[in-house]
Amino acid sequence: MKTGIIDVGGGFRGIYGAGVFDALMDAGVTFDYCIGVSAGSANIASYLAKQRGRNFLFYSDYVFRKDYISFNNLITKKNYLDLDYVYGTLANTGGDYPLDYQTLSQSSARFTIVTCNALTGKTVYLDKSDLSQDHYDAFKASSCLPVACEPYFIHGIPYYDGGLADPVPVAKAFADGCDCVVLVLTKPAATIRDPKTDRIPARLLRHTYPLAAMRLEKRAATYNAGIRLAKRYAKQKKLLIVAPDTCYKLKSPVDRDKKSLELLYKEGYRDAQAIPGFLDWKQRTAKTA
Questions:
Q1: What values do phi and psi take at 13, rounded to 5?
Q2: Across residues 1-10, what is the average pLDDT?
Q3: Residue 33: strand pairing partners
Q4: Which residue, of 71, 94, 100, 156, has the greatest Cβ tally within 10 A?
Q5: How many CB atoms lie under 10 A from the CB of residue 182?
Q6: What's the CA gap between 212 and 122, in Å, rounded?
Q7: Average pLDDT of the segment spanning 44-71
């Protein structure tokens, strides 16, 4: 039976996923297939690298640094969130908390990183072959928030956040052969995304990357459809949704309330306790089928 896990990201609310993956590492739970969207791709990277607690520090400590996110970055670098600092300066060899690339690269799990081609608006799925020691551009592309950041270029192609193109890649996981999937959300599962929040950013983006702007305008509908599909699979016992009951004071992806971040991490760790039981049950039923 092929098992999969999806982390949809969600900016700094991704600390919920950090709690989930730390709990999975503590329980010795592994997956055959992992898909990360935006910050979710970084969460999975640390998980596959077996670096327990690494993601927590990025969300609870490093996010408060001006080099990480600030209006000064926006003025001097045209990027409110400095992705080169996050996935370069901090994560590279000699950085504050280097990614253990060797362990990540040797993992038997398939790792898919969701991005959006800014020119075409199409979904692009990157993988471990797009990573190398101290070259983590795939994470930068997947986490590149439109308007807040300039698109991130890889081999001359501009990319934006994977959440524009495939924010809840449940269909992708099953299409790639997963028999059961764990879906990690960073907002309550009952949340219905409102398209109004994307209208102004999409209008601004339309002047430079019109096709990416179209995807941004449709992001809410795409997200909501993904959640509906996930719930259908959940009813069939093929998928487990792991989601927080509340986002506390973290209303936007870049909100940084320290207490809320810590509470969301603890909630993720606690909610992850349901995952081993789900996987064990699926394994048992698969053997008797």
A1: -65, -10
A2: 96
A3: 4, 110
A4: 100
A5: 25
A6: 8
A7: 97
